[in-house]
Structures are given as structure tokens and as C-alpha cells.
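REQUEST ID: PR-0412
SUBMITTED BY: lab tech R.K.
PRIORITY: routine
TASK: structure prediction, single protein chain
INPUT:
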Amino acid sequence: GETAEDVAAYVASAVGKPGEDTGQLARVGVKRSTAVAKADGAAVQIPADPSGALAYTFASAAAQPGELTLRSPNASSVPHNIAIEGGGLDKKGPVVQNGAVSEVTAEVKAGEYTFYCSVPGHRDGGMLGKLVVK
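STATUS: complete
OUTPUT:
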């Protein structure tokens, strides 16, 4: 029950943290994206890493003020979602897997927000990014 969830959350958070090794081990694991997702009108697509890793395929996103929908397709069997916080917002989309799409809509003003996966341990494991609205 709770112990298994605690162990799973710990493992998920530990897997996403880079090691201190500067040799060959430093290059092992998830390659974090530096790409920026651009909003297409009132929506921005931020897919979860298709391998199931604790990452999105974009490190950040850019959008204009107004109503904005964040969509996060998840092709993997590992459950993920998309959530947004900042500027007084704290909204979470549904947790999905196996090709489903997590979606959250919010009214955003100019500023910086954080998008992240709210599944326990995933945000701590590095599954987050910055949304810049201007």
C-alpha cells in the first residue's frame, strides 16, 4: 500500500537526478531537451518523453497572454500528466498513459509559469519546465 507508493516515488525521484560522475557515467540516462515549444494559437503541445522517462520533449514553452491549453500526449505506459502553476494558478490535467493526452486550460497573464508532472516523485525527478508568457 503506502510503503510501495513511497518506494516507487523515491525510485522515480532518484532515477531522474544526474550523477556527479564526469566520465562515461555522466552521459548515461535521460537526455534533457533544450527545445522550446511554441504555442499555436491558444494551445501548446508538450509531449511526455515517449520512453516513459521523467521528462517532457520540451524544456520550456512560449505563449501569449489569454486562455491557454497545455496538451501533453503520453505514448508510454508510465503514467504522466501536465500541470501548471505560477501567477496564482495551480491546475492539473488528468494522469494518462498508452497514447492518451493530458490537458489543462488556464487564463495566463504575462510572466513565468512552471509546467510539471504531478504524479508523485516525477516533478522531483526533473519532469518540469518553464512557460514564458509575453
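NOTES: Residues 23-28 have pLDDT under 50 and may be disordered.
REVIEWED BY: pending
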